[in-house]
Design brief:
353 residues, alpha/beta, 13 helices, homodimer
């Protein structure tokens, strides 16, 4: 026991934090596959353990994948002949506990998008944007929608599928009221499920990225059932939604199941004036990526027919993400009329382009 | 202010509880549809708002639906010619926070079932039983399995789909080790999802019974993905599961999706030595009720073909519940070979009957 010069007391300090100088110091003590996955304490929670971006999507003039509008034109729009690209920025504000901070991030993303991709880099008008909102504060979200409604290039409102309650519930209605008023569809995209304040849409936390990513589609199914059974499309007859990157082939089975439940239980939801599946064509669209590809193309074609893909499905590539769907290779050979609607007409009508 | 005789003090008591003499007192102040649904404070959380049992299933000699083995013979087994009925008791012990109490309930259910339905009421051996376990305590559950393994009429282990973690996770492995050791399949049945200690397998709580009941199938999908991606069937090669009352038509789309993810992400799950869907025929069965019935029987037949129903699907009626599937009417006309396997052979092989 020795007294120090400064206090004259012997001291044992029971909480002092040592940090590695870089993540690489810790990595050097790890084996693969963990070594190349580790990005620092608490990171990599549900990050793709391989890579999150197409490796060839890094722009030659610097910056990360998806940061250079001109390179996106070169790599995506020109080669495939895209007439429009609907932009889905990734603000991740829906996972934050502070609704004011989340709303500030959403507003900043919208201003940035309007200035850049939808502004000075959009002389040809090929880029159409999504209004980012923080759905934790539906009234603030509605004000953010009001702020951008009428902008020539914002064509929808977007949020992430991660949530604390299914999206059909009434606390969200100020958002839907604003969407309906301005004819803006509401797009739901995966990304904050089970993160921050959001509950995990499965029975407890999945372990691996492959499990988490596969089960993302379950959140979309639950949100859709909620929209339908809560009667959102009765309360807001002009309101439309699009489920982006939530999977495709679950739709027929889910609607068969819900229609059957409705037959027995409609007493509980008297505001539903028709079968759940009958709301889809007027109010719901599904985007195609990641399109499931069974071994037998015929099975996928049967599934697309069952779900009325000709009216419900809209093409999406998810560029520049790792699981990009190429317009040339994602689908098997489709009947011409179906292909035309999926790749072009459904979105043209839905977004009034 | 007046002083009382007993204390000599003036008293204001700020917490005194008044109770209605019966639920009917409160009901008399309610309107329909709430009036007939209300069963007392906190009850009716996710109870069927119409009725949970077939109204004609109440035995003539007293007791509730499903309490009289002889009446079940009269109403179900004889008219349809059932050779065996696999019994799924409903102990609801998996929602309890106390694992010892939950385990005691499971044990009591097993003793009761062995004494009655599998004992003195089972001279003809038509009833086969499920060993109820409390999966909150996997080691205690394994001991309970050991206790009944070898009983001539217990043919599987069962639990509810409600859970705090997906069933592929390693904390459950003592259960699967015991199942494998004794050749007992592990059956998962809905019922405690989002109740008690169990998380809700959707993004927050659904509002209505129709929504909750429709989305029960999402828990099954998440559990199946967990079993597959965690490599449970590699670790326990003799282990088999059956998903009971979790829906049917979601299987093809989910397996297409997971197979596709596996193609890109198998680096993360190197213990999976083949595509996820390839484990199904050896390890997974799905029971048929509630079978989805789309308007077009042809679509259902396509779906059954896609999922290899001829090997994967086993008939179940869910007697005496409200959404009972009759062996005569639940299915459209099936090819003979498929019908024979679904109604009889798949279960005969699976349960070694």
């Amino acid at each position: 026991m020795k007294a120090t010069r400064s206090t004259g007391r012997a001291i044992i300090d029971c909480d002092v934090h040592p940090y590695p100088k870089s993540v690489d110091e810790i990595r050097s003590y790890m084996q693969e596959p963990w070594k190349s996955r580790y990005r620092g304490s608490g990171r990599g929670f549900f990050d793709n353990p391989v890579h999150g971006m197409r490796l060839d999507a890094t722009p030659p003039n610097g910056g990360g994948a998806g940061t250079d509008p001109d390179f996106v034109r070169e790599q995506l729009l020109k080669p495939f002949g895209h007439e429009y690209a609907v932009l889905m920025p990734r603000a991740f504000c829906n996972l934050l506990p502070d609704p004011d901070y989340a709303t500030a991030i959403a507003a900043a993303y919208n201003e940035w998008l309007a200035d850049t991709w939808l502004g000075k880099h959009n002389a040809d008008g090929v880029f159409k944007g999504s209004i980012t909102i923080a759905h934790q504060d539906p009234h603030a979200a509605a004000r953010e929608i009001e702020r951008w409604a009428g902008h020539p290039h914002f064509v929808q409102v977007m949020t992430d599928s991660g949530a604390r309650a299914p999206f059909g519930q009434r606390q969200y209605y100020p958002i839907y009221e604003a969407c309906e008023k301005h004819g803006l569809p509401f797009a739901i995209h995966p990304g904050t499920d089970g993160m921050g304040i959001n509950v995990q849409p499965s029975p407890g936390y999945p372990t691996h990225y492959i499990e988490w990513h596969t089960c993302l589609s379950l959140a979309f199914q639950a949100h859709l059932v909620s929209f339908l059974t809560e009667g959102v499309f009765e309360r807001f007859p002009g309101f439309k939604i699009v489920l982006v990157e939530g999977g495709v082939s679950w739709l027929p089975g889910l609607m068969w199941r819900l229609d059957q439940e409705y037959k027995a239980l409609r007493y509980e939801v008297p505001w539903m004036t028709k079968r759940p599946s009958e709301y889809l064509r007027d109010h719901v669209r599904i985007s195609s990526q990641p399109l499931e590809r069974p071994d037998d193309d015929g099975h996928l074609l049967q599934m697309l027919t069952m779900m009325d893909a000709e009216h419900i499905l809209m093409f999406a590539s998810d560029y520049p993400h790792w699981d990009f769907d190429s317009p040339k290779h994602a689908f098997p050979k489709l009947p011409d009329a179906m292909a035309r609607r999926i790749f072009y007409e459904n979105a043209k009508e839905f977004y009034k382009l």
